[in-house]
Amino acid sequence: MSTATRRTMELLRVQLKASAMLALTYRLDFVLDLVIGLFWTVSAVLPLFVVYGGPSSRGVPGWSFGETLLVVGCFITLQAVIDGAISPSLSTVLDHVRKGTLDFVLLKPHDAQILVSTARFQLWRVAGLLHASIVFGLGFRELGHGPSALGVLQALALLLIATAMLYSFWLLIVSVSFYAVKVDNLSNLFTSIFDAARWPASVFRGVFRIVFTFVIPLVVMTTLPAEALLGRLPWTSLLASVGGAIAVAVVARVVWLLSLRRYTSAGG
Amino acid sequence: MVQADGAECPSQGGEDDGVSLRAIPTLLKVGFAEAAAYRTEMIVWVLSTTMPLVMMLLWTSIADVAPVMGQAGSSWSSSTFVGYFLCVFIVRQLVAAWAAWEINFEVRQGTLAMRLLRPLHPLIAFATSNLAYLPMRTLVTLPVAIFLVATHRDALSSDWRLWALFPFTVFGAWLINFLVNVAVGALSFSVDSSLRVMDLWFALFFVFSGYLVPLDFFPQWLRDVSAWLPFRYVLSLPVELMTGKVSFDEALGLVLRQVAFITGLAVLAGTMWTRGVSRFQAFGG
Description:
The structure holds 2 protein chains of 2 kinds. By secondary structure, chain A is mostly helical. Chain A has one domain. Chain A has helices spanning 3-25, 28-53, 65-99, 102-107, 112-117, 127-143, 149-177, 184-194, 207-215, 218-229, 235-262. The longest helix of chain A is centred in the N-terminal third of the chain and has 35 residues, at 65-99. Chain A is globular, with a radius of gyration of 20 Å. Chain A starts with a helix and ends in a 6-residue tail after the last helix. In chain A, 37% of the residues are buried. The mean pLDDT of chain A is 85. By secondary structure, chain B is mainly α. Chain B has one domain (16-278). In chain B, strand 1 and strand 2 form a beta hairpin. Classes of the chains: A mainly alpha, B mainly alpha.
């Protein structure tokens, strides 16, 4: 392992440890996250019960109840990742930018992107993964069969890809914050757009289909993993997703570096 | 009027009411200027109300295959859903309140002490600054409203009496929202994570207010439950009036219940606020 990689790993370990200690201090948060998350999970699943349970409604075209539950499961998983690992760190950056304390981060002898991206983890948001597993369980019970090993592997790969994409989008938002300071609600906007990811892709038609596949690839993030779990994901989709994720990541990195160069500290 | 040591005597007496009333127009003007100054921020907030549109996509994709039957025997076509969720979007913009975050922030930062010193009840200040955003918010929702009237007029009510009730229910809905915000904000005096309670409120609101699923699709027992919870009166009631999903007589009964909830919440929020303020010591003070 090169020195740089080892130092990055060491840094990640230290930052995680700090967040873990913080999480252990606020143990009550775990219970709160568990309870409130349960309500959110219910509110995510309840419309489906109505959609599939009504006397005349046949549900989302092309998706059975169990299959749709798998999409919602992926959605809840990714939401936990966002709330736990992505959004807390990047909102600290927004704070730094607004207060002008980002200078102290930039002065540290390590890559600033890694420093700010690992600044804070909300570890108790792991609770969301518990809820997701309940939804997955319900879905597979409804379907009557479990996923194949290959399907699980593909789905995990796609969820990792989705995480990389979400992270890149967040980094782009942070880069914008160097230009327009008041963007904490811009990240809010992204969270609410991500809400659309809870439905299978067949819900989106026309312009929405194109936007949510190629511009903000919500379809890649939740529908494709669900299709992988169902064992009907074409390899080409997986490859295209990897390509897309790499492209977004490169763009985000370049934009980040360009914005950093333009950054002039507040009150400096 | 001599103001007693404000930090010691946070609650204003009755004699200040005149001052408060006279201050309101000015406060509204200041609030409006603020709304105009932070207009981009506000538009981003408005845009982040995507949930009605997300739900609209789901429901129209289903209703395009075949109309969905509600519990009350009404048939919902794709265009009924578009009308419904556009109304939801508009009402949601008009009844938004955010005092809980402001109060929580000011309690933690200690800046609430400044507000308590002023010869004006802080809750009046919060309420007016919130209401002052209304003209700008109306302006932003105007395109949606025009689109709604132009293209989905048949999804709207044609009974003028329902439209006459509509503004009152919108104001009532805002009042409920605001009072809940005050009550949760008052929790900040004793609990650090009071805003989590707001999360809980929102989760329940999503389910029981018709925000995700029109109440028409709930099974009867769940409809009965929602009639006894505040959430229907925060969003669904004005929307039901707009879309004509209720008769005038039903609407009157619902308005009465809304008033009952406002009264109850006013007492609750008032008590919690007074209790909270009495134990408030500005941080670092």
